[in-house]
Amino acid sequence: KLFIALKSQVDFTAALTSPPPRTAFSNKVFWITGASSGIGRALALHLCSNHDNTNLILSSRREKALQEVASECEEKGSGAQIKILPLDLADIGALKSKAETAIALFDGRIDILVNNGGVSTRAMARDSTFEVHPFVMNVDFLSYVALTKALLPTWELQISANNKAGLKTRPIIINTSSFVGRLAAPVRTIYSGAKHAIMGWYDAFRLEQMIVGYPIDVLNVVLGSARTNVAKNGITESPDKKFGGKDDNIENGLEPAFVVERILASAYAGQDELWIAPRKELFLLYLNQYIPITAKKILGKAVAKQYAVQNEKTGEEKEL
Q1: What is the pLDDT of residues 86-144, one digit of tens each?
Q2: Domain parsing of the chain, residue ranges
Q3: Which letter does DSSP use for residue 20 in this model?
Q4: Which stretches of the chain are DSSP H helices?
Q5: Which residue among 60, 101, 198, 211 has its CA within the 20 to 30 Å range from the CA of 92?
Q6: Are the beta carbons of 33 and 114 closer than 8 angstroms?
Q7: Which of 195, 265, 198 is nearest to 11 (CA)?
Q8: What is the rounded distance in angstroms from the CA atom of residue 182 to the CA atom of residue 197?
């Protein structure tokens, strides 16, 4: 078992965690944000392929893309019931109303909220406008809090009903945080800040809910490089400027299918945190846990080299 854990691309606990049974999430209601692509899409497809009779609410800004994901899910034939609820995580003021709509879609229940939508950054703080900062904080952190707060009264009613019925099931929140939520990275300044905020807020929230007698399971996913469009869709100096380029770490990152399988295993096991990353990044997370100064120096040098190459390529493109 130790050998398996050492060879794995997840933390030791997750490496030894068994996959959930096919019926683990039967009749459960998932609400997945950022479901039109990347990890969100992979999670929806995995649930429809490997688990029976799940209920899915799929959300993102792109309604057409959500419909395509829903169609793919329905083709799996697992009995999943799928609803589409378009939303924009940047529109914080609209999220309470969206949550009320989501609750009504499956008879007043949300069992598992997957806070997955977000936006990355590819610019240094000195080069970024101030407007980037509230934009990223809204999308990557405050939207998560807004949805959680909007669902909390319903969840506490569900917990009370479960307790009266002698059931120990709890609502689950799965947050897609990041490697930079534990080890801040240059050129990801506000992204690092938002992901750190997720970790801090939800670790405190989990404890608070235990104190008041309405426990909610919260899984914070410390995700390293995975093969998604996170770099391509990342923003640079201002919210309207996209990076649009490639990131070798992302291109060579983890397969989303592997990521979501491990996420569900950890969530089903009631774990608080999951580290999942390519081995070099996983090593840095462990190093940061015990020798943080060294981990930060290594990361700084690695990003500096990557940033220099990125700028060199950008310069060549401008000359062309």
Answers
A1: 999 999 999 999 999 999 999 999 999 999 999 999 889 999 999 999 999 999 999 99
A2: 2-283
A3: P
A4: 2-7, 12-15, 38-50, 63-75, 95-105, 132-137, 143-164, 189-211, 248-251, 256-268, 279-290, 292-319
A5: 211
A6: yes
A7: 265
A8: 10
